Amino acid sequence: MSGNTLRVTGVRCARVASVGSAAEGDVDQIFDIIRTWEPEGLPEDNYPPGGLMLDAFLEAVFQGCLRDRFPRTVSWPTLSELREHYLALLSGTDRRANILKYLQNGVAKAAKFFTTKEGYFGVANKDVNEGDVVCIMLGCDMPLLIRSTEQPNGTFNLVGICFVPGLLDSEGLLGHLPENWKLQMIFKDGSLKIRGSNLSIPIGQGWPLKGLMMILTFFNGFKTRKEIESRNRIPDFFRVHWTSEVLF
Fold first, then answer.
1. How far apart are CA 111 and CA 163, in angstroms?
2. If phi over 0 gives left and psi between -120 and 50 gives alpha, with beta otherwise, what is residue 189?
3. Which has the least CB within 10 A, 59, 70, 110, 144?
4. Number of other residues whose CB lies within 10 A of the CB of residue 104
5. What is the DSSP string of 114-181?
6. Of 9-18, 29-38, 129-138, 172-181, where does mean pLDDT reach its minimum?
7. Positive or negative, the Cα torsion across 202, 208, 214, 217?
8. Distance CA 31, CA 79 (A)
9. What Pfam family is a match, any one (predicted)?
10. Which of 148-152, 173-177, 241-245 has the lowest mean pLDDT?
């Protein structure tokens, strides 16, 4: 490998099929562009990977900056608040001001909306093109976009990170979250707590939790510090569950 090439392990999850216009300009102009991103059947259809299409669309546009996911960020809206305002806007009973106030922090600025052949959609930087591949790389917190160099050695160029509902919480490796579960990020003194809708799994104050251990904790319901700290679980876990290994 050359000095600017990495050999990484990951899973190819989707291929970009279409790309929308970049969200540029002032807040009103950005929202006008967001309206052009709306998928067909937005108000009532389901998102193929799961849940409501409107919820997935709003989560993508706001890139997860929601109080549902980060409950201590009180200035951020909840998904239900955004849904209510957007439905009212679509029906003509509400003005756009209630949505625009949540775009003031630039959350969608310069982003592009894209769809994939597999039914996913998301947002990425302005460099995203049709044919780019959405993948999950071990060691990365977000899905990545890569682009084939079309060289015989099978190398790819890194386009950047992307925000794709349905591929954000390790679903590309481990499948969808169990029914009625959700993930919340609660940071305090460097520690983190993961909660299910009917279950709380405290990690402990001052006990940092990182990447892969977080995935294992959430999807396997480990409840004791001893179990989570067992390093021997990690190789076995991926030998059993990860059947789509791809080397880039």
1. 10
2. left
3. 110
4. 8
5. EEETTS-EEEE-TT--TT-EEEEETT-SS-EEEEE---TT--EEEEEEEE-TTSSSSHHHH-SPPTT-
6. 172-181
7. negative
8. 17
9. Het-6_barrel
10. 241-245
- CA angle 109/25/15 to nearest 5° reads 45
Q: Would you report the helix, strand and coil content of the chain in percent, each value rounded to 5?
A: 25, 20, 50
* Residue 124: both structure tokens together: 């990425």
The CA-atom distances, in angstroms, between 178 and each of 58, 62, 71, 147, 195 are 21, 24, 20, 32, 12
Phi then psi dihedrals of residue 101, to 5 deg:
-65, -25
Contact at 8 Å (CB) between 8 and 170?
no
Work out the average pLDDT over 129-153: 92
Q: Between 64 and 198, name the one with better pLDDT.
A: 64
Lookup: tokens for 95: 């003005």
